[in-house]
Write a structure and sequence with these properties.
Strand order of the largest sheet: 1-2-3
CATH class of one domain: Alpha Beta
Largest sheet: 3 strands, parallel
Order of helices and strands: HHEHEHEHHEHHHEHHHHHHEEH
Bound molecules: zinc ion
Distance between the termini: 38 Å
Length: 434
Amino acid sequence: MEYCARCLYPANAKPTIIFDEQGVCSGCRYHESRQRIDWVEREKLLREILEEHRRRAWEAGNPYDCIIPVSGGKDSHYQTYLLKVVYGMNPLLVTYNHAFNTPLGIRNLNNLVSRFGCDLIRFTASPEAVRKISRYMLKKVGDLTWHYHAGIRTFPFQVAVKYRIPLIVWGEHGFAELTGLVTLEDMVEFTKWTRQEHDMRGFEPEDLINEESGITWREVVPYQYPSDEEIEELGVRGIYLSNFVYWNAKEQADFVIKNYGFAPFSARRERSFLLYGKTDDHANDVHDYLKYLKFGYGRATDDASMEIRHGRMTREEGVEMVKLYDHVRPSTLDTYLKFLGLSEEEFYEWIEPMRDPDIWEKKVDGTWVAKDTVANHIYDPWVGAARVPQVADRTFSEWNRHLYYSDGRFDNQAFTNPWLRIESHNEQRDFIVL
Ligand SMILES: [Zn+2]
């Protein structure tokens, strides 16, 4: 397997990653391209778009001038901060409740609404519908969280049409950030096609309705995109803030923790050292483990690659993170097997045909072994030349302790989280009891 000479991504990373002649991946090049953008000019463009929509809402007598699709995470907090506090908009927050909430996620969503004084519409899917969809899509494409992606990418558009709010404001373009799917120069906007192709793995809700799945049309209502006529008539557009402002997830997380009460995790997580991302969703570990079972890499690869691109972590330190986390079987797998009515054997059997033969090999005794790992590529010829300058703001430094978990291998201090001021949230649970 070929690995990026700068970060840790393998050549089979999804969505499609491309390596250039220096052996550097398209995600690293996307990150680098931020330096070439005139951000003052970009921010001006953003102000123009927002101004226009504020005027349109005023003329239409609509109290809301934009929609922010939120989960309650760090990005939701930062998006709401920008739109409400910095740009003086009156956003309607819209969320899709996927039923796999962590207590921390529920606490953060409540915090978001109360701290920014915004209105929120929350669609809660029936747990039985979620179970059926989860089970079916796990078997079909190895994804038990299809309904999240479909829900958060679709339900805000239903609200847009119903409440006649034509502007939807997303945070970062996630796929661009990971593997450089698009360029900053393109200034892409949200489309129904990318939603289906990337977020929903090529499936529209009607594709789920059949005898095998037992899913009925009533159970896929939140995933039905408005008609082209409805979208056009209202002139709905979805923009990404990361095209207009210099996006730096770590700085933004730190900012909303310190100023707006967003709470990160405060203890070691099973599949990554990063404490401020994916806080709302306890299926994420299983979702991420599935990525590992299919393609041989997981969230530690994602998170460490981001640190490496920012120069906060060396590639060698990143490799240590991959060795620590990427292969770990999450304990929440038991919860989901029970919820889906599956045995562990069935689970692994279902996933077997999805394992990428470029990375996985089945031994005669039936066990699967990864044929390669980034740990075998520390001394690849291009690595030295591809290195980014290191910054003083180290991932595992004293002042970043509330953002990244260190097990002591990289420092000798006991882990404490000075910024954590969470009220007791352990009793709040939604639908699925662990
Ligand atoms: Zn890379």
